[in-house]
Design goal:
Layout (H helix, E strand, L loop, with lengths): L4 E5 L20 E2 L2 E2 H11 L4 E6 L4 H6 L4 H9 L4 H7 L7 E6 L12 H6 L2 H4 L4 E4 L3 E4 L6 H12 L3 E7 L9 E5 L8 E9 L10 E9 L2 H8 L10 H10 L4 E5 L5 E4 L3 H13 L5 H17 L6
Helix pairs in contact: 8-9
Bound molecules: uridine 5'-triphosphate.
Length: 312
């Protein structure tokens, strides 16, 4: 069965980016010329995804508006001949892509949604019997590789008939305690595409030699829903996707990791440091203004280093 469905959780509160995210969904923050969610959708379409479900919330209507047809704008742009190329890119219906929306409800008595596992559970009737992609709406995988990371993940998932395929990237050993880390099976030679023996949430550096961190992209068979329903919530009340994957591994299901290749970069914008770095990288690589931005940045750094600018 060709994999054509994707679930994009966007219902989180984005508290680490307050106060910006009080009224603007973090997934709508610009990265270069587009909101980050637009990059995510393009990445999905490029990998052959045609049906995209956003698991959203009351405060995230801007995402639905962004992917709306907005025909008056289209007509206006079509009249401006110079923008024609852009118009066809925004016309998702013509590109064969359909968007769906559902909400992750916050249970009575709770003040925040119950985590990424709970968000994915809201997609059960959308995905039915089909395997599907999960892509977090606040992360981009930048890839000029062909096939892209997501295409390689889909090929691996189909090839091994896996229950779960996780995107991973290599992080320094001393930083593993900041990440969800996956541990390859003994005897798995290549980390490019390997079967997993364990998944550890923020392990101490001496707890595992693995440096493969989980990277915001997953493929699942429908088996994941039963796992999500059967795991107990964490002490915080949240239902973590990683706990459901750990349950798949414990049940000896085929769970694999596909690793980013050199030159592929995972960006996330979940905190200010990561957001600033992501925005700077995209601005410096802009096809029209990148060279100017790089020169501006160079001059600015020179002035800062020479002490002629107030560092504020
Ligand atoms: P994060 O845990 O990084 O985002 O989720 P958050 O909860 O919004 O951020 P903070 O910690 O409050 O700053 C990664 C992705 O999963 C979605 C988020 O919207 C984000 O795109 N998510 C998270 C959900 O859809 N539901 C949840 O319950 C939690």
């Amino acid at each position: 069965m060709r994999i054509t469905k994707a679930v994009v959780p966007v219902a989180g509160l984005g508290t680490r980016l307050l106060p910006t995210t009080k009224a603007i969904p973090k997934e709508m923050l610009p990265v270069g010329r587009q909101p980050i969610i637009h990059h995510v959708v393009e990445e999905l379409i490029q990998a052959g995804i045609t049906d995209i479900l956003f698991v959203s919330s009351r405060s995230k209507n801007a995402i639905e508006n962004h992917f709306d047809d907005y025909s008056e704008l289209m007509m206006h742009l079509e009249r401006e001949r110079s923008a024609m190329g852009e118009v066809s890119r925004f016309d998702y219906r013509k590109r064969g892509v359909e968007f769906f929306f559902t909400r992750q409800q916050v249970p009575l008595g709770q003040t925040k949604p119950l985590g990424t596992g709970d968000a994915v559970a809201a997609a059960e009737s959308f995905t039915g019997d089909a395997p599907f992609v999960v892509a977090f709406g606040d992360s981009i995988v930048h890839s000029h590789e062909s096939p892209s990371l997501l295409q390689r993940m889909i090929a691996s998932h189909e090839n091994y008939q896996s229950a779960c395929t996780i995107a991973t990237y290599t992080v320094p050993q001393e930083l593993v305690h900041h990440y969800g880390i996956v541990v390859p099976h003994v005897g798995e030679e290549s980390q490019e595409d390997c079967r997993l023996a364990d998944i550890l949430e923020k392990p101490a550096p001496d707890q595992t030699p693995s440096r493969l961190a989980i990277s915001a992209r997953y493929l699942f068979s429908p088996d994941i829903f039963q796992r999500i329903h059967s795991i107990p919530p964490a002490p915080s009340g949240e239902v973590y996707l990683t706990d459901a994957i750990a349950a798949q591994i414990s049940a000896n299901a085929m769970v694999r990791a596909v690793c980013l290749r050199p030159g592929e970069v995972r960006y996330d914008i979940g905190n200010h440091r990561a957001y600033f770095k992501t925005f700077i990288d995209y601005a410096l690589a802009d096809p029209e203004y990148g060279a100017e931005m790089r020169s501006y940045m160079k001059d600015l750094l020179n002035e800062l280093n020479s002490g002629s600018l107030d560092k504020g």
